[in-house]
Amino acid sequence: MSGQFQRLAETNRPRLAITIDGEPAEALAGDTVLTALLAHTRRVRIAEFGGEPRAGFCLMGACQDCWVGLADGRRLRACTSFAEAGMALETTGMTLRGR
Amino acid sequence: MAAEPPVIVGTGPAGTRAAETLVRAGLRPIVIDEAPASGGQIYRRQPPGFTRADTEVYGFEADKATRLHRAFDGLADRIDYRPNTLVWSIRPDRMHLLRGGRVNELAFSHAIFATGAMDRVIPFPSWTLPGVFTLGGAQVALKYQGCAIGRRVVFLGTGPLLYLVAYQYARAGARVVAVLDTAPFAGKLAALPALLARPGMAAKGMFYLGWLRSRGVTVASGIRPVGVEGTDAVAGLVWRDDAGREHRTDCDAIALGFGLKAETQLADLAEVPFTWDNLQRQWLPERDGWGRTPVGGIYLAGDGAGILGADAAELTGERAALALLQDRGPGDHGQRVAAINAELDRHRRFRAGLEAAFPFPDDLARSTADDTILCRCEGVSAGELRRAASELGAGEVNRAKAFSRVGMGRCQGRVCGPAAAEILAAALGVPIEQAGRLRGQAPVKPLPMAAVLDTTQ
Fold first, then answer.
1. What is the pLDDT of residue A99?
2. Domains of chain A
3. B121-258, which class in CATH?
4. pLDDT computed for residue B452 by the predictor
5. Residues 6+ apart with CB under 8 A from B309
6. Of A4, A59, A63, the CB nearest to B411
7. Which of B279, B339, B340 is closest to B306 using CA atoms?
């Protein structure tokens, strides 16, 4: 699946190795977690109430729709957090088990 | 009241000019900002390591951005600058801050809130699908991350930003499929005389429109969105033109916005009274002709006190700082404030023109279908809000929130609030201002549990 975001500029930045739902992926230094995710996928999380995918909305820390889980149990607001090497991001919820 | 160093919240055009004015008067303000670098949303800076020139990032506004950034950087050793810091609560004598995952308190006597604005949106079927972002968010993706929100992007809503961001996208190499404006074309013509209060701005707007048209971008006025298509993400947009004909536009992203709404949570927590502003169709904190609120020591500047745009924000930032200096004395700043206010009159006339050219389509909000998600935080439909009014007797938005949870989610109604008020007013059959105002609550944004535990243990 291709990502939601399309990189148009600033692609000459150092590469960071991360994982998305256990799969290795590459982010660029200076990417927000949201950018790092949406460069590869079209989902940031699963909505708690409806179980449908969400991918953020406002990108400026206001709507709170992009809180994403990390494998270590933390949660981050993806649009205001920078991607770091080694981050293990989890976009799935229990509703997607086995899907 | 002890004269603590004045506090400025926000480092956009208003916060920057406020800080500069206080420093010029010999004070050393504490300047707090959620972002890692100054500039606010409009002049948001790229992260370290990005190399695009200001002219590439900010276009025609590059000079203003450069000047504002330089002005802020020039204050570095004369202010107590606290980036990456959230003010999450206000009490009469202190603010509660969150920085680096830890909370702490800041005693204060005087504060200027320059908290800016965000997009105002209206829900429509399947608007919560991945690929729908706010218009401002689409701009952030480009300016701050060098990304487009998709490969085939539709710009939907109304307001001058619709054309500006579409132009910026196309210039940066993104594929702009359509610019779909809910405002009718006739209203824009009628608004022209008022818009000529700022001829340069009006000319830029015409340029963006002409540029987009000349490159074959579909630009339509007087449209109505019908719904987003797609199962797990955006695959298309269905809309109706001004003659009522239905169209389907293939796209994988939609930038959505219907003007801006002031971020007023801190003023609210500081117990500043609010009044309904008919022109901007939103509740705004009360302030006088200097930016003073009725609450002693609290001043407002920039779009967080009502939408007037970035240039006006520089003026109201300076004005709020002068009001603070006037109140702390000695000295009289009346002459400069009168000059600022004379200049602001032009911005107000222009704003009235913009509101006429790009009116908020309240009819669209009011006709949100019962089964459309209204509150995206909690997944509550428009119909559930209507039932809070019709079956449970909620007579205003806060009671309706208690019954339906609309506005109770993590965003505290920032996103659904304007549409929810329209829907409720229509359901109750009352003027919009009688539907009430959603009250803000601390913390104004979610706090990590660990931040609070760290300091209480």
1. 45
2. 15-92 (3.10.20.440)
3. alpha beta
4. 78
5. B303, B347, B350, B351
6. A63
7. B279
CB atoms within 10 A of CB B49: 12
CA distance B9 to chain A (A): 16
- pTM of this prediction? 0.97
Phi, psi of B54 (to 5 degrees): -55, -35
Fold of B7-118+261-329: FAD/NAD(P)-binding domain (3.50.50)
Q: Nearest C-alpha of chain B: how many angstroms from A51? A: 10
Which residue of A31, A32, A46, A49 is the best one to mutate when testing the B interface, meaning the one whose CB has the most B CBs within 10 A? A49
CB-based contact (8 Å) between B233 and chain A?
Answer: yes
Taking each helix axis from N to C terminus, what angle separates B62-73 and B13-24, rounded to the nearest 10 degrees? 40
Selecting from A38, A59, A64 the residue whose C-beta is nearest the C-beta of B140 gives A59
Which of B401, B379, B414, B363 has its CA nearest to residue B120?
A: B414
Query: Euclidean distance between the first and final Cα of chain B, in Å?
Result: 32
CA count, 13 A, side-chain hemisphere, B418: 28
What is the reported pLDDT for A93?
67
Counting as low any pLDDT under 70, the low residues of chain B are 1-2, 454-457
Mode of pairing for the β-strands spanning A88-90 and B153-158: unpaired
Give the integer Cα–Cα distance in Å for B84 and B78: 19
pLDDT reported for residue A50: 87
- The string over A7-44, giving b where at least 16 C-beta atoms fall within 10 Å of a residue's C-beta and e elsewhere, is ebbbeebeebebebbeeebebbbbbbbbbbbbbbbbbb
3-state helix, strand, coil in chain A (%, to 5): 10, 30, 60
What is the band of A58 on the pLDDT scale with cuts at 50, 70, 90?
Answer: very high
Nearest to A1 by CA among B369, B151, B57: B151
| pLDDT score of A1 | 55
Which is higher by pLDDT, B159 or A48? B159
Quick one: average pLDDT of A42-69?
Answer: 95
Angle at B262 between CA B18 and CA B181, to 5 degrees: 125
pLDDT at position B454 is: 63
Positive or negative torsion for Cα B7, B11, B12, B16:
positive
Its CATH architecture, for the domain B362-435, is Orthogonal Bundle (1.10)
Residues of B in contact with A42 (CB under 8 A): 130-131, 232-233
Record the tokens describing residue B97, joined without a space: 């801050």
